[in-house]
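S., here's the first fold you wanted:
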Amino acid sequence: MSKTTIRFTSFPKTEPPPSFVSKITGVFQELECGLEVEAVRAIRGGAIYRDLVQAMVMVDVRHLCIAVPNYLKVGKTPDRTYLGVLKIVDALFGHSRLQVPYGLTIIGY
């Protein structure tokens, strides 16, 4: 299955052309929902952090869904990716210093 990347602007259309354009797996514009599917890079490559921060500046995203593997075995080290992502999300969403402007759903596959 090939990954389709959708370029998604991070600034309202009334402003000058954006200097930064987000790349996201899918956007459901009528639902104001973004979808990002990650694999091995979710934790080890820091993709979860990139996804969470990029969604903060996406104008039309009110909800973000991130799909990550439940479990991966890379080499001899087992990686419980889903549980690791939940810990990161819980720390960010539960902190009073950060206000996340969108709802979030984490999907394990």
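And the second, which I think is the more interesting of the pair:
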Amino acid sequence: MSEDGETQGENTSPPVQKLLQCLEWVYEAALNGIPGVDGVEDLAQSYSTQHRCTDGAIDSLISWQIAKTSTAGFITGVSEILTLGLPTSPACCTSRSA
């Protein structure tokens, strides 16, 4: 983004412009929040009121974010296995030796 608030889209292809627009939307949503999800400042305020010290709030925030992303990754992996399917015949998993 340039200093005047405009994206540098004049010299880029349409797919790159669309990607830049999407990234800008995600950035704004992370800062300001979206319906049902707090923005960065609200999230920080929430954690700071739950903990006595800043370090404790930071550690808790990081731990919860890691737990959420790990859970999402696990669910994605399980659904991928279910979609691709597992071998049902033991013969396909064993090698034949001569």
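Why I say that: Residues 7 and 21 are 8 Å apart (CA to CA). The radius of gyration is 23 Å.

Talk tomorrow,
H.
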